[in-house]
Design brief:
The protein has about 375 residues and is an alpha+beta fold. The chain is about 25% helix and about 40% strand. The radius of gyration is 25 Å and the shape is globular.
């Protein structure tokens, strides 16, 4: 697959004035990534980490302080070469968090607007608007005023307007966050299928982990303006490469330890065997990471003769519908353990915690 978007050395700072003081805030720090044709690349991270600023720099709505942006093999921004192509000429489509539909226009006119601005002939304009509306399942609503649509339908209009120009890159900034849970789930699945069927490189911004896992081919995890790690959803979840990634995603146990020459890690609960690890981690201070659902409990409390088996006591439990979340104390350390809701363990029970070596990761301290 060809690279549709390339971001190199991107930096962006803002000057924030508070009284007489001016503070320089680094919104993006030396960011590099590529997105291939047909790929959904998601920027995932907490609010304020620089996701939207990155998107706005790609779109040309913000000028970076340093770096380059290349779309379809053409440089649209370069600080060193003094290149800055205007947003409408970058070949991008963008969907914002709010619906951004024009209330005085019909559905058809909302979607047709970017084509009219480009002077597309009427027959071609009509064909492409109908094509876009069909893709987002709004065909038959062309003449309806935008104000008479539901929130989910208005977001579909915004999406149709973004793709009607057949952009090289599609930018989606928290496109589902303003919808209620049921509509968000339905539209998420439809959007996933739509993006899979189109050969458009997509940069998707969200703070919702489940949304990122469902939508993405690759996830870029961001924190405080930095792109910390990039990987496919399964790799990012089960094999995080940073302590932030381990703690931000899902429910994880992160234990500080010493990596010994024999490959085991000495932790406060005892020695833990890790089946596979980064070869550059050969000794020293590390973190052992394993997910709460990667832990098995032996309710008999028997731990003899098994690797990564530790005696513990259930201190707390929470019912979350599809599962129980347990707090199990092992040698003074509280571990998170997830169990199916059909399994009920009493608080105070003595158990054996078994940690699969194949589901453990090591992260450099």
């Amino acid at each position: 697959m060809c690279v549709a978007l390339r971001v190199q050395g991107l930096r962006k700072t803002f000057r924030v004035k508070s009284g007489r003081l001016v503070q320089v805030v680094e919104a993006i720090r030396e960011m590099d990534f590529e997105v291939r044709e047909g790929e959904v690349f998601t920027l995932l991270g907490p609010s304020g980490c620089g996701k939207t600023t990155t998107l706005r720099c790609i779109a040309g709505l913000e000028d970076p302080d340093e770096g380059e942006v290349e779309i379809g093999g053409v440089t649209v921004f370069s600080k060193t070469r003094s290149i800055s192509v205007s947003p409408e000429k970058r070949g991008i489509g963008m969907v914002f968090q709010n619906y951004s539909v024009w209330p005085h226009m019909s559905v058809f006119e909302n979607v047709a607007y970017p084509l009219r601005a480009k002077g597309v002939p009427k027959d071609e304009l009509v064909r492409r608007v109908r094509w876009a509306l069909s893709l987002v399942k709004l065909d038959g609503l062309e003449d309806r005023p935008a104000t008479r649509l539901s929130g989910g339908q208005q977001q579909r209009v915004a999406l149709a307007r973004a793709i009607v120009s057949e952009p090289k890159v599609l930018l989606l900034d928290e496109p589902l966050s303003n919808l209620d849970a049921k509509v968000r789930e339905e539209l998420r699945d439809e959007l996933r299928h739509l993006l899979r069927s189109m050969n458009i490189a997509t940069v998707y911004v969200t703070h919702d982990q489940l949304e990122a896992f469902v939508m993405s081919d690759r996830i870029g995890l961001m924190s405080e303006g930095e792109l910390l790690e990039v990987g496919d959803p399964v790799q990012t979840y089960f094999r995080p490469r940073t302590k932030f990634g381990a703690e931000f995603l899902g429910s994880a146990n992160v234990l500080e330890g010493e990596l010994l020459p024999d490959g085991t890690v000495d932790t406060r609960i005892g020695k833990i065997v890790v089946e596979s690890r980064d070869p550059t981690l050969d000794h020293g201070k590390v973190y052992v990471v394993f997910r709460s659902e990667s832990v098995d409990l032996d309710l008999t409390g028997t731990c003899s003769g098994t690797t990564n088996a530790f005696a513990g006591t259930v201190r707390e439990k929470k019912f979350l519908g599809d599962r129980w979340e347990l707090s199990v104390e092992v040698s003074g350390v509280i571990l998170r353990v997830s169990l199916p809701s059909r399994v009920n363990v009493a608080t105070g029970s003595r158990v054996c915690v078994r940690i699969d070596p194949a589901l453990c990761s090591l992260v450099r301290k």
